[in-house]
Amino acid sequence: MIALTAALAPDLPLDVEEFLTWLAVERGRSRNTLGAYRRDLTTYCRWLDERRRPLGDVTEADVTAYVGRLRAGGQAPATVARATAAVRGLHRFLAEEGRASTDPAADVAAPRVPSGLPKPLTEEAVTALLGAVVGNDAVHRRDRAVLELLYGTGMRISELCGLSLGDIDPESALVRVFGKGAKERIVPVGRPALIAVADWLGPSGRPRLVPDRWARRGDAEAMFLNQRGGRLSRQAGWAIVTAYGERAGLSEHLSPHVLRHSCATHMLDRGADLRVVQELLGHASISTTQVYTKVSTERLRRAFDAAHPRAHRR
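Now predict its structure.
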């Protein structure tokens, strides 16, 4: 059986490299997206090599067989859908650029991804999470600011880790966020998050983690540092959230994205306009934000069913 992994991949064909470059330069895809596409296309090219099928000779039957193999591999539907999107995008690029006479993936249907509703924390659970940071050393001051900003602004963990010192303006209570595709947006910051950030930037916070010599260019401007004095990574930011979630008894399914879900849902619960939440979260499409409306409606229904004497139905 062919292993559908991208470990220790060979060099990719020039056409694939040019497609990835086009995604970065012309479409502004993020580093994480490009990395995922590279892994997916490496796996695809290896599969073609094992079938002795040059990229230019691929047929619709080949693409269909590959998608079928992905589905049979037991991977998550979202993973299969992303890998299929990478293959479809590659062949569409080659056809549009005149590098291939036809697009063999044009009629291959993309797998459907089940639409699961996000499960936000309650406001009480968020309070418990934020209250789990009880220390006052530099690391605890950093962690408190990380959690307050994630929930207070709804930003993604990659956006938070990419913040620089000049991106937060305490006077206007605004933060500049660079989202997917390097798109910039300005997001308001609440008072608790501003206080936590000021505490982190004070003498007992970030300066305590500044190294004698910066290891990488750009680390000196990073808003959040790790204990070695480098820019906080996405993985380390994720670990901060899960660690304090465990302390607060919220370890099940807790992630930075849950805080983002919670921010959006709580704003809609309290009457925020859907368009405002869309702009706050940096969603390109309002349909992406509308899922939170359904979450709020279902929460309202559960509260009604639990509390109203006339709500019970046979």
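The chain has two domains: 14-96, 123-306.
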